């Protein structure tokens, strides 16, 4: 019997309540043995052994419990020491009144700065910036804006480090070198802000035009109905490839402009643009985009220059990474006679095509459209319409001085379009081999990354 109990002690699972049960069993068996031994007047060796075993098991239970409690305490201390930010929490935690009795008497919760949902209407020249979106260690538009807002107490230090706490969201995420005549940022701000003071601390390439109150749930990106971009380039880009033209003296003929217009119309409507971006497959629903209009405005010669320029204007619901620049690139390849118009039609099909990407210099986010929001809230008496009519004069003045002039000046200095056109004939406009599809897939994005409006 003692041999059996020894095996039971060794094999019992002390972490699942077995120790407690074994302890009770040993006590009961020890008591029975004691009575039997007393009756028979024999030595109580077995009873003593069982009592010792019961005591050992109870000590084991106590030690394990103490060890478990110590591990739990250490784990809680480690978790409390880590102030991990929860991105889902948007509201700031309530701050308790100060411990000082005098400060408590003067503490007024109503004196806390109240913030309301607003939009910042702004413009910028992106030639010398690495895009709109903030990226640590790089020169971006958002970084300049956030630094200036922090200096003028539009936002707190905490909001500067984590802008999502004040529901910061831009309408479009422009890429490197891309400018914006009108950009809209939704954000929570104090009631009284000084726009003129803020602009003094912003670079002259960035300008805030207005701050407008919007509804509590407004999001500058998801509430946007459409976006209008423009692409400005020298008209010599419309000449046939075999024609040797001089950029300064060239004037685009009327018949060439008609070819341009016909080519641009091929992009209008709902199409599958998987060939006009990266990391997109034909079967991906997000590859389909709706282009409302694509047209070429009348050519013009900028003041102080002899080179003729033209502006392509495109309006669509949304655009993917490099989509517009690839649309312009393939348009110029067709207009210059390097590939037929059928290439554009085929590029909307499942077959893979290599589409050239035009330089980013001439691309501008021209306007953000909020027609549905304006119909519902623009005339409710509490919110302003987001049509930017009041700011139109400021927008146009900034565009001419800091965007259009910069595009022309930079093009005449660097000849980026001219150099790109020289490489255009080297591009292949034939379908890509199916064996090359891997290079198009690239690194898959995580679900929380949004590739809309990356131009």
Radius of gyration: 36 Å
Report how far apart the termini are: 83 Å
Unreliable spans are 8-16, 36-43, 89-93, 107-111, 437-452
* Average pLDDT score: 83
SSE string, helix = H, strand = E?
HHHHEHHEEHEEHEEEHHEHHHH
Largest sheet: 9 strands, mixed
Count of DSSP strands? 9
Give the % helix: 25-40%
CATH class of the domain at 226-368 and 406-429: Alpha Beta
**CATH homologous superfamily heading of the domain at 226-368 and 406-429:** Pseudouridine synthase I, catalytic domain, C-terminal subdomain
Shape: extended
DSSP strand (E) fraction?
Answer: 15-25%
In the CATH hierarchy, the architecture of the domain at 226-368 and 406-429 is: 2-Layer Sandwich
How does the helix and strand content classify structurally?
A: alpha+beta
Quote the CATH topology of the domain at 226-368 and 406-429. Answer: Alpha-Beta Plaits
The number of helical elements comes to: 14
Structure report:
This protein is α+β, with helices and mostly antiparallel strands and 455 residues long. Among the domains are: 111-213, Pseudouridine synthase I, catalytic domain, N-terminal subdomain (Alpha-Beta Plaits, 2-Layer Sandwich); 226-368 and 406-429, 2-Layer Sandwich (Alpha-Beta Plaits), CATH 3.30.70. Helices cover 38% and strands 15% of the residues. Strands 1, 2, 3, 4, 5, 6, 7, 8 and 9 form a 9-stranded mixed sheet that branches. Strand 2 (169-170) and strand 3 form a beta hairpin. The radius of gyration is 36 Å and the shape is extended. 31% of the residues are buried. Residues 8-16, 36-43, 89-93, 107-111 and 437-452 have low confidence and may be disordered. Residues 67-105, 431-455 are annotated as: Disordered. Keywords: Isomerase, mRNA processing, Nucleus, tRNA processing. Belongs to the tRNA pseudouridine synthase TruA family. Its EC number is 5.4.99.12.
């Amino acid at each position: 019997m003692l041999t059996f109990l020894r095996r039971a002690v060794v094999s019992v699972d002390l972490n699942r309540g077995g120790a407690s049960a074994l302890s009770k069993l040993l006590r009961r068996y020890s008591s029975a043995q004691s009575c039997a031994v007393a009756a028979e007047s024999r030595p109580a060796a077995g009873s003593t052994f069982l009592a010792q075993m019961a005591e050992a098991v109870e000590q084991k239970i106590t030690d394990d419990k103490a060890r478990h409690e110590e591990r739990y305490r250490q784990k809680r201390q480690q978790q409390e020491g880590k102030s991990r930010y929860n991105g889902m929490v948007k509201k700031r935690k309530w701050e308790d009144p100060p411990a000082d009795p005098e400060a408590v008497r003067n503490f007024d919760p109503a004196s806390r700065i109240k913030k309301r949902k607003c939009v910042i209407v702004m413009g910028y020249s992106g030639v010398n910036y690495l895009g709109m979106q903030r990226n640590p260690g790089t020169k971006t538009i958002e970084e300049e804006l956030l630094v200036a807002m922090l200096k003028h107490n539009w936002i707190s230090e905490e909001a500067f480090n984590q802008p999502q706490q004040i529901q910061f969201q831009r309408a479009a995420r422009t890429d490197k070198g891309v400018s914006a005549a009108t950009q809209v940022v939704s954000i929570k701000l104090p009631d009284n802000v000084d726009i003129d003071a803020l602009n003094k601390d912003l670079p002259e390439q960035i300008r805030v035009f207005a701050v407008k109150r919007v509804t509590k749930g407004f999001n500058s990106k998801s509430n946007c109905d459409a976006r209008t971009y423009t692409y400005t380039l020298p008209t010599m880009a419309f000449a046939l490839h075999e024609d040797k033209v001089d950029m300064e003296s060239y004037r685009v003929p009327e018949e060439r402009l008609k070819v341009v217009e016909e080519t641009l119309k091929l992009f209008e409507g709902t199409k599958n643009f998987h060939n006009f971006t990266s990391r997109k497959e034909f079967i991906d629903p997000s590859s389909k985009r709706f282009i409302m209009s694509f047209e070429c405005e009348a050519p013009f010669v900028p003041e102080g220059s002899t080179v003729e320029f033209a502006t392509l204007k495109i309006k669509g619901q949304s655009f993917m990474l490099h989509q517009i620049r690839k649309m312009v690139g393939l348009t110029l390849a067709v207009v210059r006679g390097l590939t037929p118009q059928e290439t554009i039609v085929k590029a909307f099909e499942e077959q893979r095509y290599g589409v050239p990407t035009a330089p980013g210099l001439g691309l501008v986010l021209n306007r953000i459209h909020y027609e549905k929001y304006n119909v519902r809230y623009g005339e409710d008496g509490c919110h302003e319409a987001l049509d930017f009519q009041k700011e139109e004069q400021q927008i146009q003045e900034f565009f001419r001085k800091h965007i259009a002039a910069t595009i022309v000046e930079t093009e005449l200095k660097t000849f980026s379009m001219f150099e790109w056109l020289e490489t255009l004939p080297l591009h292949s406009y034939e379908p890509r081999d199916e064996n090359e599809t891997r290079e198009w897939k690239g690194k898959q994005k995580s679900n929380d990354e949004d590739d809309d409006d990356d131009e």
